[in-house]
Amino acid sequence: MPAEAKSVRYPLRLLRYWFGYQLLREECLRAGRPLAVAEIGVHRGQMLEFVKSAPQGVAWSRWTAVDAVMLTEKLEKAGYGEFFVANLEDQNFALPGTYDCAILLHVLEHLFEPEEALKKVASGIAPGGSLIGGFPVVPDMLAGIREKQVRKNAGPMGHVSVFSPARVRRMAQEAGLVAEFFRGAFFLRSKGSPLENSAAWMRFNLFWGRLFPGWPGEIYWLMRKPV
Q: Which of 80, 145, 167, 179 is most exposed, with the fewest beta carbons within 10 Å of its own?
């Protein structure tokens, strides 16, 4: 956890894991059983650590870490038990089995062809299962311009794709999925600000994100694979 997040009670930076946890918890309740989960782009294991620290647990039968570079020792300490080293951009990428849910938090913005990557992941999800993800967002009218800018200036492992709410819907449709949920995360991410000690400020940001999911910030979503 970054220093600015540790210094406040309601760090907006951690909403990425909060959204992921809440959506995964709902999926667990919906299924009524432990889930088979594939998390793609695990970094240091922050998502699973957040889930395990939450007051209401999520039950899983398997949780597979999928990444091109695997920090195995750190991930084992975080609680991961299965590891699949693979690059999502490889033409022949496929998940090592069938899963109830795939998590893609802040992964697709690093790919030049996120739509194709989403299709590959969707093929490994059981009917009725879901994909949970999120990334930075801009209004529809600005997405094309912004993507040209970031691709021109992108460094190694930088952002190369830009998303809007309309693109999220199109991605779901092209992958044969239904976009059931998408929400913006905040009006203003005031990292480390005293505002982040206020529950009212957190609620306002979530309310704003619900009304204006394309407001420049972040968007989180759930896509369902039809039965």
A: 145
Residues 6+ apart with CB under 8 A from 156: none
Q: What share of the chain is helix, strand, coil (3-state, %, to 5)?
A: 40, 25, 35
Spatial distance between the Cα atoms of 221 and 212, rounded to a whole number of angstroms: 14
Tell me the three state secondary structure of residue 121.
helix
- Domains of the chain, first to last: 3-224 (3.40.50.150)
Q: First-to-last CA distance in the chain? A: 38
pLDDT tens digits for 55-105? 877 999 999 999 999 999 999 999 998 999 999 999 999 999 999 999 999
Reference 103, options 178, 192, 21; nearest CA is 21
Both tokens of 78, joined, read 């975080």
* Secondary structure, 3-state, 147-183: HHHHHHHCCCCCCCCCECHHHHHHHHHHCCCEEEEEE
- Compute the CA torsion angle 61, 114, 170, 24 (nearest 10 deg): 20
Give the amino acid at 157. Answer: M
Whether the per-residue pLDDT at 147 is higher than 80: the answer is yes
Please tell me the distance from the alpha carbon of residue 224 to that of residue 190, in angstroms, as a whole number.
Answer: 32
Beta bridge partners of 39: 65, 103
The answer to whether 26 and 101 have CB atoms below 8 angstroms apart is no
Q: What are phi and psi of 137, to 5 degrees?
A: -140, 150
Is pTM beyond 0.70? Reply is: yes
Which element (helix H / strand E) includes 17? Answer: helix 15-31
